Amino acid sequence: MPGFASSLLALITATATDLPPDVRRAMRRALGVEAPASLSGQSLAIIDANIALASRDSAPICQDTGMPTFFLRTPVGCDQIALAQEIRAAIAEATRRGKLRPNSVDPLTGANSGDNLGPGTPVLHFEQWENGEEIEIKLLLKGGGCENKNIQYSLPAELERVGRASRDLEGARKCILHAVWQAQGQGCAPGALGVAIGGDRASGYEAAKTQLLRPLEDTNPDPRLAELERDIVERANTLGIGAMGFGGAVSLIGCKITALNRLPASFFVSVAYECWAFRRLGVVLDARSGEIKRWLYREQAEAEAPAPAPAADGGRRIPLRAPLSEADARRLKAGDLVAISGRIVTGRDAVHARLMHEGPPVSLRGAVLYHCGPVALEAPGCGWRITAAGPTTSSREEPYQAEVLRRYGVRAVIGKGGMGARTLAALAACGAVYLNAVGGAAQFYARAIRAVHGVHWLELGRPEAMWELEVEDFPAVVTMDAHGRSLHREIEATSGESLAALAAAARGGSADAPGGKAGTAACESPDAAARETPACKM
Hints:
Blueprint: H1 4-17, H2 21-33, H3 39-57, E1 67-75, H4 80-96, E2 123-129, E3 134-142, H5 144-147, E4 151-154, E5 157-159, E6 163-165, H6 169-183, E7 191-198, H7 201-210, H8 223-236, E8 252-260, E9 268-274, E10 279-286, E11 292-296, E12 318-322, H9 326-330, E13 337-346, H10 349-355, E14 368-370, E15 375-379, E16 383-388, H11 398-408, E17 412-415, H12 421-430, E18 433-436, H13 442-446, E19 449-456, E20 466-480, H14 487-506, E21 523-524
Parallel strand pairs: 1-2, 7-8, 12-13, 13-14, 14-17, 17-18
Antiparallel strand pairs: 1-3, 3-10, 4-9, 4-21, 5-6, 7-9, 10-11, 13-20, 15-16, 18-20, 19-20
Helix pairs in contact: 1-4, 2-3, 6-8, 6-14, 11-12
């Protein structure tokens, strides 16, 4: 198939840079619902601009281009080994071109392969079909932030804010709503869900993720599940989580559910949480030539994306010039909009861990520390260029952040999703703030970067290295201040009350005590340990 390689590269590039029309429509509807001046409205305006920028420039929508997961249907007799080799070569080439961020990390050594190849990367699912003329390929790029908010429940269970979830459809409904609540801003709301009721632990998670291949606007052929999908979206959007967990009317843009037969001893509800940067496209290829015959998820022609405009903030942003003083930080309050200029540094998981036993390569006194793993390209003789630079989930740095603040004098931390009690206490003690940027808006923020002054600890891999960046008017929201206030904690509490009220209404007003923490929760979430009030533990 002489055209197969170029077709693969076109699919990978389009998936990483151009949201499918159904997701674009859902996000545009969300933008029309929220008040423009609200924090959710501001976030959705940035997201809208980011979507247009990424599509226009064929650049990654989000800097976390995720785990490339392919679903292929091939004719009987097709050489799947050869196809797999071609796919791996296309992944490596897309990474070299900066369409994918190097995301494949050895779990034993921490080494980044640099080309998105390695054991288990990419993920390939092959299926044969009787169509001997065509090959169908669907690609899902699901980032680590939303992947960490996947969750699996084992029923019956007692769930935080919900109470008892039994082995029935109502119990599954409670689990799914709880899954939306536990994601908050860490999952880059407004999100979408793929859900599997039943199966075993492995098949349930796989089927849940496969549900994300369904268009948001389709209708489940099972009327019971169709009603449940509609109901979940409606109820989830009364929780008040909103975009980025800032509070608002749109927390979920879609929910797709399947049901699998289960063992008598097991009743699992598996939820795959997907962020607003819902990157999913597909192609149908000619089985002889490998050329693209048609695209999937692009059945309806879309109007050209409008030119992106800055979020309307009414001139309310407070200008900050890095490095910051303690007085700069202490005058800020939760809810303030800021615009940062000056030199900032990035630091993710590996940087924070290293700072526990080794001093930083540059002074962090008064610094703005950005939780970001950018897409960075190096041009010979021209230095480094950052092509995508949105925030990563900050909760992973909770074990380190308070010590970094105290030891090195950092004055501001930028990330998404908020942080826990230890960091909040350290912000107050040290005179520092936490700033929330819009998750996934990698193109919007890349354009606030004016220069790369240097890169350190590059042996950790490009996403994990410490980058020195010059920024201008980088927008963010103060969500944790030096006075002990956390918007994340407040929204989690108020949305939890709404979740408890929904559960109580489903029981007909019974006082079955869902309002506080449950004693135990029989569910498993990869990110549970990072939450201040975990719904479940590994």
